[in-house]
Amino acid sequence: MASGKEMEQDYLAESLNDLFTSVSNMIKGDLQGTNDLLKLLEKMNIRVSEEYTGFGDVASGLRVYLEQLKSKSNGFDQYVQQIDSIEQQVTEFEAVVSMLDKYVSLLETKMKSIYQIPPS
After folding, report:
1. Looking at residue 1, what is its pLDDT?
2. Helix ranges (DSSP H) in the chain
3. Between the CA of residue 38 and those of 24, 45, 62, what are the distances in Å?
4. Residue 74: how many CA atoms within 13 Å on its side-chain side?
5. Share of the chain above pLDDT 90, in %
6. Quick check: 44 and 38 in contact, CB under 8 A?
7. pLDDT band, very low/low/confident/very high, at 31 (cuts 50, 70, 90)
8. Which tens digits make up the pLDDT trace of 56-89?
9. What region, left, alpha or beta, does residue 73 occupy, with left being phi > 0 and alpha being psi -120 to 50 degrees?
10. How many degrees, rounded to 5, is the angle at CA 23 between CA 15 and CA 6?
């Protein structure tokens, strides 16, 4: 009876077929998982790209604002220099006034002593 050998070969062929089908399904599953991960990574990259594009716009706006502030600051430099100059002149003027006050006090004392006016 050759049918026993044929059954054994059919069983072996069926087992090999099941093995190849299982391996094929496993590889398909792995590839599908990898494909899903790559799609997720692509979506994440797009999202990050959109986020950084927004940051780029903000940074560009901040750069323009900073340039405007720098321009305004440069305009104020002239006024700051004038204020410093005025402050220096006021300090010198205060010194002159103080010297004049001492000189006037000295003159007053001399005048009182010359005219013999009692000190008040």
Report:
1. 47
2. 3-115
3. 21, 10, 35
4. 6
5. 53
6. no
7. very high
8. 788 888 999 999 998 888 888 888 899 999 999 9
9. alpha
10. 15
